[in-house]
Amino acid sequence: MLEQPFGDERFGASGDISLARKPRSLDLTQVSEWDDGKVARKQDYLAAEEPLEIRVGDAPLSVTMRTPGHDLELAAGFLFTEGIVTKRAQILGLDYVIEDGAKNRGNVVCAVLSQDAAPDFEKIKRHFFAASSCGICGKASIDSVRVRTLSPPNPDFRLDAEILVGLPEALRASQAVFGRTGGLHAAALFDAKGELLVLREDIGRHNAVDKVIGWALLDNRVPLSDVAMLVSGRGGFEIVQKAIVAGVPMVASVSAPSSLAVQLARELNQTLIGFLRGRRFVIYAGEERIGGH
Description:
alpha/beta, 5-stranded mixed sheet, 30% strand
């Protein structure tokens, strides 16, 4: 089933999904635009949204609505942040499934895990289905996080306030698909000097986070103890917990965090920043990591 492990944009796909339509991150459509009383027909770009099924062996684990692109990173990040695997070595193979015909070509990914990481599906209380808008929500998700062993991130990481306020502009400048559609979220990792390490876009902000964490996991960079994560939109509970699992000491968002996200960040001593816009931001937790404020 898997001819070569880790076939994606970086590793080279082992399954030739170009034999059928490969999911794209952009779609083109015809629209009518009303502008000050005048109507014109034009072409417009849309952010693509398609289901991605993640399997472990032959067993379906999750379906997430996502923007195609960096799917193997998304799958790896999901497996890691949801606690299915705890380290890179437990992922023995990861590739597209190519036997399901043209309909699913490029929309099914299969992971081969080491024996110590293979999930017991009988004990999984919730069957993963993630909507692009909110990810995996609900009491079962929260309870599963509470019982996991989460460690406080690196207490020694520091980021100067003057560097922090420059990160949103660096994020926007690197959002290639957002610039054409206006419809995608982004997550990015920056080092203490404000240098962009990686950026991923997706219609779901939680997917964008899984993509950057999956990138780090596959590149043996986890734990991410010396980076700040910036996300577009709000900083919700699931984003904070995913970042904590990956060891990220600081999460910033351009909008507001949720109450549960603030609670979790304070419990685990993670720095949580909201309303990062222009030369203003609000520190909800971990103030000691912000220098020069």
